[in-house]
Amino acid sequence: MGYTRGRRIRALIGICLGVAVGAIFFSAVNTALAAIQTSLDATLTQLQWVMNIFGITICSTLVTVGRLADIYGRKRIYLIGICLLAVSMLGSGLAPQVEWIIFFQAILGFSSAILIPVSQALISNLYSAEERSKAMGIWAAVVGLAMAVGPLYSGAMISWLSWRWVFLGTLPLIAISLILVALFSQESHSEEQESHIDYVGILLLFITISTFVLAVVQGQSWRASLVTTLYIVSVVAFVLLLYFEKKVIQPIIRGDLFKNRQFLTASIANLCLIFFVWASFFFMPLYFQTIRHYSPLQTGLMMLNVTIPLTIFSFTVGHLYRRWGAKWLIGSGFVFLLLSAVLQMYFQPNSNVWLLLMGTLAFGVAWGFIWTPSTTAAISVLSLQDAGIASGTFITLQEIGGTVGLAITGAVVRAHTNLLVGYHDGMWVLVVICLIGMMAAGLMQSTKSD
Q1: d(Cα 63, Cα 74) in Å, to the nearest integer?
Q2: For residue 427, what pLDDT is reported?
């Protein structure tokens, strides 16, 4: 492909480093929330917005930026994403108020919406068909390892320096990524027909999600009439989204994909998983630090019980998938996820550490059992022509699940003045989500060669 092996390796390292920073940060930021709350006198609602604004931005723009990269050049758009990542980390690390962190998290969401799909496109263009699967395997391994070390990285930075270095400490990696991609990656454009940008879909999806999340998160503090209006606007925007998406050439969400039972059920299962992940990953570190009075480093070590099983099963679940099939593997995952939710209901200020270990380990095992198999089950049943838009739709729904999940569970928790009581009641929401996920798994095709 005109590139030496060494140059391709350096380009691959640069591409993977950019995505790795995002993966590290996703699993690291939750460990830092308690320190941010104390340092900046932030409310629980404001902490929720640190995550919610990220989710709203990424799921509103994820599919679209892939098409922008096809039109204007994947390398160019990826470098823009890296620069935005640097801006978001620098701004958050220097933020004098939590509102500034929320603002820069919106930029981070847009940056992540660029880095996730465009990194895969760059790697696909960098390697031949024979080498591509190995390169993508390296990409997945780097992301998995980054997520695994995120909590420990965050805990160490807070304990030894301050929460600001959770953000600022990523800047050297971002700089290396920027240099390597700029010097060694090659530009590419779509060789397919002209890509179309669904601007109306972007706007309507953004309005649908943002007004719904705003109503849920602020519902207890704003006037009932205003909250009701937000819900109405969300519903109207959603109806208009469904209407207009039928008319555009390349929609953000293609409704006809959901006529495929396997894609539909796998998408629901994955949405339920990420609903659980965002909510539990947000409140679990707060429990450890606020209720148990763990240090940030101790909290990071405890959260490794979630991320390490996830990483291990991400590498080994392929064999189980071929042996059991998606239906039983994902169904088993939701059993573990339900177990984690139930165990978290019994987390107390002085609970035995073995209870905490079982609750966190069950969470990590479940995540590993569901995440990759649901993605494979959803995409593999569709034609190669539909794989790109299906993947974008699938990931968009995943991010919607996380954003809405944190908003709803957070509203339940904040309905109580006692954080622990609210945390336990919030787990009931996650129990219901686990049951929905189980039903989705039960409706999947039962063949072992999904």
Answers
A1: 14
A2: 92
